[in-house]
Predict the structure of MobA-like NTP transferase domain-containing protein.
Amino acid sequence: MPLSSPPRVRGLVLAAGAGRRMGGPKALLPAPGGGTLVEAAIRLLREGGCDTVTVVVGAQAAEVRAVVERLQPTAAGAAGPDLEVVECPEWDEGMGASLRAGLRHLRHHADAAAGAPVEAVLVTLVDLPDLTPAVVHRLLAPPAGGHREVTWRRELRRAAYDGAPGHPALIGRDFWDATIESAVGDRGAREVYRTHPHQLVECGDLATGRDVDTREEAGSWGLPSAERSRE
C-alpha cells in the first residue's frame, strides 16, 4: 500500500538517455522486481508517497512512452494527470536537458493538471535499481520532532548514501528557475545545491543509490544489457 504523502509534491523521473554504453535506453531494461526500469521508477515514487508523476523521455521516446502509458489507467479512471509523459527534444545534451524539460513543463502546466499548485518535485533517475519506496518516504517526511511546518516550495533536500549525495532529490518551486538556468550537461541541479542551504537525508541503511551505466554494472545487478534484453 502506498505510504501517505505530503500534498503538492510531484514525482519526476528522468528517463531520456540513450544508454549508449548499455546498447540502448536504460529505461527499457528489465527491472529486478519485474517490468522495466522506467516502470520500477514510477512504482518507486508512487509507493513512496508521490501521488502524481511526470516522466521525461527522449531517446526511443515512442517505445518508452508506450511502456509508461500502459501504466496510466488507475483506480481514478482512465489516463489522466496522475501520470504524464514529457518529451525532451534536447535529450542528447545530457541529464540537465531532461531536468530542464521536466521543470519547464511543470512550471507551466502542473497547477492545472494536478488540481492544486505543485510546490516541489522529487527527482529520480531511471537507472537506480536498488532504491526502495522507503527512501522516497524518508525524503518526504517532516523534520524530526515536527517542530516546523514544511513550506514545500522553499525546500531543498537530497538523499545521501554513507554521506555521499545522490538521488532522489527534492527541489522546491522557489528553486525551479535557478535550476532551469544552471542545469547543463550532466550537472542537473548540482549548482543549486552548491549555492543554497539544503538538507542531506541519509539513506545508506536503505539502499546503495548506485546507478547502472555500463554492461558490466548491469551484470552486477543481474540485469541484461539492452541488446541482450531484445534477444
